[in-house]
Amino acid sequence: MTDSVVRVRGVDKVFGAGADKTPALQTIDLEIPKGAFVSLIGPSGCGKSTLLRLIGDLTQPSAGTVEVNGKTAHRARLDRDYGMVFQAPVLFDWRTVQGNVELPLEVSARSRSARADRARAMLALVELTGFERRYPWQLSGGMQQRVALARSLAIEPSVLLLDEPLSALDVTIRPEVRRELSRQLASFRGVRLLVTHDPVEAIALADRLVVLENGRIVQSGTPEEVTARPRSRFVADLAGVNLLRGKSHGDHIKLANGASIAAPDAGEGDVFAVIHPRAVALFLVRPDGTPRNVWQGETESIDLHGERVRVRVSGPVPLVAEVTPSAVRALHLTAGAPVWIAVKATEVSVYPA
């Protein structure tokens, strides 16, 4: 296997022409070193799959360059030094499981016996030994996806592209297949690039997240780095925290709607403010004491999450609070009910926007 480095430089991708032009990607710069497992995440339509297809040489950029192992993808076809696993396994029903895995090897100079040995080795890797003579229609959806993975790994790629490989699976088996996929890819030393809309999948599998929104990379880093300092509503929802943006003035932050948040040492300039839902206290009447952040709002929604309840409150500072079911009952919370919210100034985390 050759050294595997993906470089995307100044890439734009536009679909359509004239007045119907639609920008899909804008000024994308990305570099992925050998051995990295990167997940592209973001809301639907943000450009995740388009970027994956550009790296896989399945479409061409409108501007900029994509290089895989130093070869410019859209100027000369790559030498198939990558494998792809799609949402659907895309297996041939008239070929056996082993025949499907051997398929990409048939264009190589390997002998028939060498191809068979390689296919059996890959099926052993994905724990499908004994299924070589079965046909795809005789397998479960999860097993079919493992065959697709074995087929992609058979050519010893230096780059493995996974386009939402678990999204077509039944929700009841997805966690099990995700664990299997993580285990099976642990020994793969090339670049692994995963597109997913599932944040749990992204964090469980990848060691680096690249967040796209509206065709641009808005944040990247380890899962811990990205979720610790969200820079967009999508990432804040991913991390399960409240994210607000405003201008800081010493010990408070002024939001665009004029509301103010007290925060010690907020500094000066444009900032993000993060408040964990568990730091948001709810009251039926204005609370006594000395909390510096107190606002009146209206209960928008109440959702049970495990043993906690997330209460979304609208108002001058819209926030999500996380409380116990007993607190919901004690406060008689229902959608549309008025409520007071309080947050200690020391519970507000501030960093530059």
Task: Give a written overview of the molecule.
The protein is an alpha+beta fold. The protein folds into 2 domains: 6-238, Rossmann fold (3-Layer(aba) Sandwich), CATH 3.40.50.300; 244-352, RNA polymerase II/Efflux pump adaptor protein, barrel-sandwich hybrid domain (OB fold (Dihydrolipoamide Acetyltransferase, E2P)), CATH 2.40.50.100. Helix content is 23%, strand content 37%. It has 9 helices and 18 strands. It has helices at 48-55, 97-102, 112-125, 141-154, 174-185, 199-205, 223-228, 233-239, 325-331, and strands at 6-15, 22-32, 37-41, 63-68, 71-72, 82-85, 159-163, 191-195, 208-213, 216-221, 242-255, 260-275, 281-283, 293-305, 308-314, 319-323, 338-343, 348-352. The strands form 4 sheets. The chain has a 6-stranded mixed β-sheet with strand order 6-7-8-3-9-10, sandwiched between helices. Helix 3 (112-125) packs across helix 4 (141-154). It starts with 5 loop residues before the first strand and ends with a strand.
Mean pLDDT: 87
Structural class: alpha+beta
Give the name of the CATH architecture of the largest domain: 3-Layer(aba) Sandwich
Order of helices and strands: EEEHEEEHHHEHEHEEHHEEEEEEHEE
Spans where pLDDT lies below 50 across 5 or more residues = none
- Rg calc: 25 Å
Helix coverage percent: 10-25%
- CATH class of the largest domain equals Alpha Beta
Oligomer: single chain
Strand order of the largest sheet: 6-7-8-3-9-10
Number of helices: 9
CATH superfamily of the largest domain: P-loop containing nucleotide triphosphate hydrolases
Number of strand segments:
18
